[in-house]
TrEMBL record:
Source organism per UniProt: Nonomuraea solani
Protein name (record): Uncharacterized protein
Highest taxon listed in the record's lineage: Bacteria
Length: 119
């Protein structure tokens, strides 16, 4: 036997509340992922800086044996940094989209319940 969440509510308030809870949970998860990616991005920046510093040192010493290897390592570090940065930007966009969706749903509920939004 299924439950009718709309029964006994005005304009599906229980449904809206359930949708809001799900959206809030999704937003919380996105923020947690964002925090992990932010830390990863910061560490990736450090790795790129370290690789650049090692390459600079090798170039100053004219250490041709290591210069090519260090250039390759710097390029790989930059490539990985770009991947992390792109993931971070994608999740940031998703967080903004989720927030906008929550606001749209709230405005729609306010409109249906006759609230003007001016308090």
């Amino acid at each position: 036997m299924g439950s009718d969440l709309r029964r006994g509510t005005v304009d599906g308030t229980a449904v809206h509340t359930a949708e809001f809870i799900v959206s809030s949970a999704r937003l919380t998860e996105l923020h947690e992922c964002s925090a992990v990616l932010r830390r990863t991005r910061m560490r990736s920046e450090e790795i790129v800086d370290e690789a650049r510093a090692l390459l600079d040192e090798a170039e100053q010493r004219d250490d041709t044996a290591h210069i090519l290897d260090l250039r390759d390592q710097l390029e790989r570090a930059r490539t990985m940094y770009c991947k992390v940065l792109n993931a971070y930007l994608a999740i940031t966009r998703r967080i903004n989209e989720e927030r906008q969706e929550i606001l749209r749903a709230q405005m729609e509920l306010d409109r249906r319940t006759g609230l003007s939004g001016a308090a």
